[in-house]
Design goal:
The chain is α/β, with parallel strands linked by helices. It contains 9 helices and 8 strands. The longest helix is centred in the N-terminal third of the chain and has 17 residues.
Length: 233
């Protein structure tokens, strides 16, 4: 593990359910933090545990990020299902701490019968990402791997209906990037941004989300990867 952590190709040091797998929160988390700091890497903990052990693991990681500013903005908790079980007051406190430590959450919408509290997390200033654990998403039978579909589902589940709200939902499909900020200022794309983008058949962000618009082309790091020749766009 020590040697792998030094590899240039490695961006994050990961971990999985420390209490369930290792029978301890502190020991595996301390090792993960040390490897990340020693090798200038981020951290990504895949935390499926609910209840007390899940909460304690999140609190421990938050404390480590607060103690080590180099980890802030580079530390993420994937899944984080324990958040879905917290009472409102406890959730608000946890969200405030996550935001303070700049620890992000990457999870799913929904997970079986659980609706993750993305609205509360975003309100507190927590960086939130939505992903697919595989094409079917978290070992379920639903989903296509299309992130616009995830953004559309999030809009339905969280009650986003207006054009403005739907346009904000695009961030669930784009790792947080949206063309205009909440005040209408252009924030993407700008000179120097990575030239990775999709071309979709939509008049605006809200339409792309609400209609799950067809993707016609893909550019990755300035290279045309795919283009649908039948497109009229």
């Amino acid at each position: 593990m020590e040697e792998v952590a030094k590899w240039e190709q490695v961006d994050f040091i990961g971990g999985l359910d420390p209490f369930s797998i290792d029978g301890s929160i502190e020991k595996p988390m301390d090792l993960t933090v040390r490897l990340a700091l020693d090798n200038n890497k981020g951290i990504d903990i895949h935390l499926h545990e609910g209840g007390e052990s899940g909460v304690k693991t999140m609190e421990y990681l938050i404390d480590k990020a607060l103690e080590n500013p180099a980890l802030q903005g580079r530390t993420f908790i994937s899944h984080a299902f324990a958040l879905g079980y917290l009472p409102k007051k406890d959730l608000e406190h946890m969200a405030e701490r996550l935001a303070e430590a700049k620890v992000g959450i990457c999870s799913s919408v929904p997970f079986r019968n659980m609706l993750m509290p993305f609205r509360e997390l975003k309100k507190a200033g927590v960086e939130v990402f939505v992903g697919n654990d595989n094409v079917q998403d978290h070992w379920g039978t639903f989903g296509s791997g299309n992130m616009l579909q995830k953004a559309n589902l999030a809009a339905q589940l969280y009650g986003y209906e207006t054009e403005f709200e739907l346009s904000r939902c695009l961030r669930y499909a784009t790792n947080g990037k949206i063309p205009l900020d909440d005040h209408g200022n252009s924030v993407w794309p700008k000179v120097g941004d990575d030239a990775s983008l999709l071309f979709v058949d939509a008049s605006c962000s809200a339409e792309a989300v609400s209609r799950i618009s067809t993707v016609h082309g893909l550019i990755h790091q300035g290279n045309l990867v795919k283009w649908n020749n039948s497109s009229q766009a």
